[in-house]
Design a protein that fits this description.
The protein has three helices and ten strands. By secondary structure, it is α+β, with helices and mostly antiparallel strands.
Length: 175
């Protein structure tokens, strides 16, 4: 009976999963299993100490519209739709250390912390106003002004938990 159950499960898994599995041929004609075309990232979650601070930063200063926000005695979560990926901040059940160092950015190379960062594309015409808003709110910034970096202009700042948020716009370069 045990072997029958294993066989039935294996058959079920094959029939259900096989449509999602594709076989790609490389130049060497070897079979390589890949399900990557069927996968996509939907959520990125960040723990935080204070949802109101995160809301004040991402909605109040940067202007993102929250998709969902609950912050009561039982649960706290703030969700933004960032172009098809949900970015969620949830209230941690313990005090977390706030990072005070900027992440080392691949485009600008500065920053002593080799950790996580995010980049947010800002239309070029909005960058001066956004920088003024952030300066008026005393948000820590890596540079005094938006700075030309590889492929564009960046203004990295720290969110309330110390995540490096690179505000960026691309610049076309001549080859």
């Amino acid at each position: 009976m045990k072997n029958y159950i294993i066989f039935a499960f294996a058959l079920f898994a094959f029939l259900v999963l096989s449509p999602a599995i594709t076989f790609a041929q490389d130049d060497n004609e070897s079979d390589e299993m890949s399900i990557a075309p069927e996968l996509r990232m939907d959520w990125i979650n960040f723990a935080c100490n204070d949802l109101q601070e995160m809301h004040d930063f991402y909605t109040g200063l940067l202007g993102f519209e929250e998709e969902w926000w609950v912050d009561d005695q039982y649960f706290g979560m703030l969700v933004y739709d960032m172009g098809g990926i949900n970015v969620a901040f949830y209230r941690a059940d313990q005090d977390l250390e706030v990072n005070d160092a900027f992440a080392h950015g691949p485009a600008y190379g500065a920053g002593p912390y080799h950790g996580y960062s995010v980049s947010i594309t800002v239309p070029e015409e909005y960058m001066p106003e956004l920088v003024n808003i952030l300066k008026a709110a005393d948000v820590p910034a890596l540079f005094d002004e938006p700075t030309e970096v590889f492929g564009g202009v960046a203004y990295p700042v720290l969110d309330p938990m110390g995540l490096t948020v690179e505000l960026y716009y691309p610049v076309e370069t001549e080859m």
